[in-house]
Design goal:
By secondary structure, this protein is α+β, with helices and mostly antiparallel strands. Helices cover about 55% and strands about 20% of the residues. Helix 6 packs antiparallel against helix 7. It is an enzyme of class 2 (transferase).
Length: about 375
């Protein structure tokens, strides 16, 4: 089981590495395209500036050359440019929104922002040195956000894929558990019927009836276990039950069947607490926590089970004096298949979590844990 989980974890890491590689390649390729377009726009503005310089010069230019230069100037229909003289006055603008050019103060702010971008080309005109300020075109600005959009889409895709496959996997797992549980209940049922018959026959014999009573208790317990297994995967029926009495009955039964080195204490702040409860499945949770606590204490220590009513909730605490649970494992212990024991399937706590949180709409978690004081599990149920 542990090797299987290790292999599964390695596959997850491979998946994360592939996703990360896709991100890196996407960002790198998109950024490369943006930089190439930026260089292309810079060359176009350089051509624009050079055309202005040549047309304004005193050199003789034939009509074809002039037409070509004018065409270079007119071809710039996307890149915002502003021609500034050596005194800082705005001589001309191109491809800047009219709402800005018609407002002198806004135009000055816009040109100042251009200057801050440090995209300036110097030109020599008859009246002296001038400067062409320019900004990225709208298309280039939009393309700069393209990598982020691609990453967001990839994240959404993988998020949806993860949710979908997790839902499918959890559904399959639920069906598998339900099938195994019902088959187990069926297999237990046949010999259990025989055992119940033998108990009835033993009652008629002239033997020590105390032994028969104890055997009958264990047979009844097996019947309860079979009933629990048969309910896994089915819609849980919650009925009005006394939580105090149900918990006390379970604690009494388990305390008689664990090591005598374990001191078991049960307390409650009320004598009765009636809530919607599936008594059989809830008892399973308490049993599991008590048996885990016994293993953690290596059959020697103190096990406290207490119930406290708090507002709309009732709180069940199961505390032991064992060796504690490392912080990094406190979330993992509720995962199916996770176990620190040499023997075991690692399903007890995952089933306990399912019973409390899915069937009873409550909460179960590690309240606190340390090597010095042991571990405390907390269950919260609605009244």
């Amino acid at each position: 089981m542990r090797n299987f989980l290790t292999k599964k974890l390695n596959k997850r890491w491979i998946g994360f590495i592939i996703i990360f590689a896709i991100f890196v390649v996407t960002v790198w390729s998109s950024n490369k395209i943006v930089q190439e377009l930026k260089r292309e726009e810079h060359k176009r503005v350089e051509n624009y500036a050079k055309s202005l310089e040549l047309i304004s010069s005193s050199e003789f230019l034939d009509s074809r050359t002039q037409d070509f230069l004018f065409k270079l100037i007119e071809d710039n229909k996307t890149i915002p440019v502003a021609l500034i003289d050596d005194k800082g006055n705005i001589s001309d603008t191109k491809n800047i929104d009219e709402s800005i050019t018609n407002n002198e103060s806004q135009l000055k702010k816009y040109v100042l922002a251009m200057k801050r971008d440090d995209q300036i080309i110097e030109v020599d005109l008859p009246e002296g040195k001038n400067y062409v300020y320019f900004k990225n075109s709208k298309l280039l600005n939009q393309l700069q956000y393209y990598p982020l959009i691609i990453i967001l889409l990839i994240l959404l895709f993988f998020g949806f894929a993860y949710w979908y496959f997790k839902t499918v996997r959890d559904t399959e797992k639920s069906y598998l558990w339900a099938g195994m549980a019902k088959e187990t209940a069926h297999q237990i049922g046949t010999p259990l019927s025989s055992l119940m018959g033998w108990v009835e026959l033993l009652k008629l014999e002239d033997i020590d009836q105390m032994s028969v009573i104890e055997i009958e208790k264990d047979v009844d317990r097996l019947k309860h276990i079979a009933d629990r297994f048969s309910k896994i995967g089915s819609t849980s029926e919650l009925k009005q039950n006394d939580l105090i009495a149900t918990t006390k009955q379970t604690v009494t039964y388990i305390s008689q069947r664990i090591s005598k080195g374990i001191e078991v204490n049960f307390t409650a702040d009320v004598d009765e607490c009636i809530i919607n409860l599936n008594a059989s499945l809830y008892s399973w949770v308490i049993e599991n926590l008590m048996k885990n606590a016994t293993d953690a204490m290596q059959n020697k220590g103190v096990l406290d089970i207490s119930i406290h009513t708090k507002g709309k909730f009732v709180e069940i605490l199961v505390s032991d004096t064992g060796s504690g649970i490392p912080t990094k494992l406190q979330r993992k212990i509720f995962e199916p298949g996770f176990t620190t024991k040499k023997r075991g399937w690692g399903l007890g706590l995952s089933l306990a979590k399912r019973i409390i949180e899915e069937y009873h709409k409550g909460k179960i978690f590690v309240a606190k844990s340390s090597k010095e004081t042991g571990t405390q599990f907390k269950i919260l149920l609605k009244k």
